[in-house]
Amino acid sequence: MTTIFHSGLSKDLSLILNDADDFNVIIQVGENENTKEFRAHSVILRARSPYFKSALATKWITKEDDMIMFNKPNITPSIFDMILKYIYTGELDLTNQSGDDILGLLIASDELLIEELLKHVQDHLIEEQTNWVQENFFLVLHTVFKLTSCKKLQDFYLNSICKDPQLFITSETFCSLDKDILYKLLKRDDFLVEEVDIWDCLIKWGIEQTSSLESDKTKWNNEDYEALKKTLDQFIPLIRFLNISSNDFFDKIRPYKAIIPHHIYDEVEEFYYKQTLPKTINLSPRITSTIIKPKLATIISDWIDRNDSTTTLSYNKYKFNLIYLMSRDGLNHITFFNKCNRQGPFVVLIRVQSKKIYGGYNPIGYTGRDHDQWLSTTESFIFSFENDQDTNNMKISRSINTNNSILDCSQSYIYFFSFGGMLYISGQNLKIGYNTSHYNNSFNACKLPIEEIEVFSIVKK
Q: Residue 102 CB: number of other CB atoms within 10 A?
């Protein structure tokens, strides 16, 4: 068995860094009054950093009296001191470092291609510097999106924005947002802002980014509209136009017809005038679900409207508002009832451990009764998908209008919900297909461990 003596190695390398007289590299960092010279060994720098491995290649280096001279004015002395200690000893202490220095360390780690350090600093900013990051939100946001290797922080920021997107798009700094960040946000299905509000903010952003435009739109000419069209060209196809009402289309979209590609505008206009479904633009609604992709939400919407076609999707006429999430709210029938009570019709989605998805549509909802009562309806249904984007093996079973189609639950009902005894929760498991009397297409009877549950109230647009 190999014995490891890392602590002694780290200590000895620290002595080499601080006291050695055989260094062969002098690195000057910083600029103006904040500069400092560091002494190092080229063999260690090359071994620990791919950047230095290339930068200290023979054809790149400048020598004075056989000493390699290197200049890094864009890294401050305090940051480079941390980097050099990490390179020599593998040690890093960020306990008393300012947020500015930690952000600078992130930038330097990216430039010097020190992957391990880059990952650690990202984790530290996410886990230990939450307050500073929030106070300097846009500074950090724009910084990390310039660093292609900082994907973890980028995803963290996009997820944070999507948790409260309304606050973000109404902030004073929104119009200075980098275009790459805006593009990634508009692509997301969980950027849950009213589509017409997204359009309004996009127009404001575009005007701000187009320096030739006057603030008074009545003074614009054809060249001005063409300039705005050029600014917004990559963003227009990301707008879910069919999620904008016909009134808002007339008042807010039509005045900017000149900046919208002809094929997009014509398809949207034909939809509003003739209810003809577009062929090329995005029909998927924005929906915050970790269980299904937006296309499946459109299929469920079709089923609500009794369109059971598996080949032709229609426009999604419903908003899916998340009201219960098991991983957030806990698997508790009282909490479930309180979250869903008096919220109107809802869709429940259940992902089991095999990743298969089951669900049901309750067109009545919970009406706040003090006792459980079975109700009759022809509009309820249950369904299954093989995975989060399955459209080939999905299955639907509709109520056959018996007196036990839907249970209008009270707080005392421990099974969360029941679709005619065909779909309900018992303990930590989902039970399916145990009563085949009330729905027209039976499921195989089984009991499956639950991984996640989501409930969405369904509101017609």
A: 20
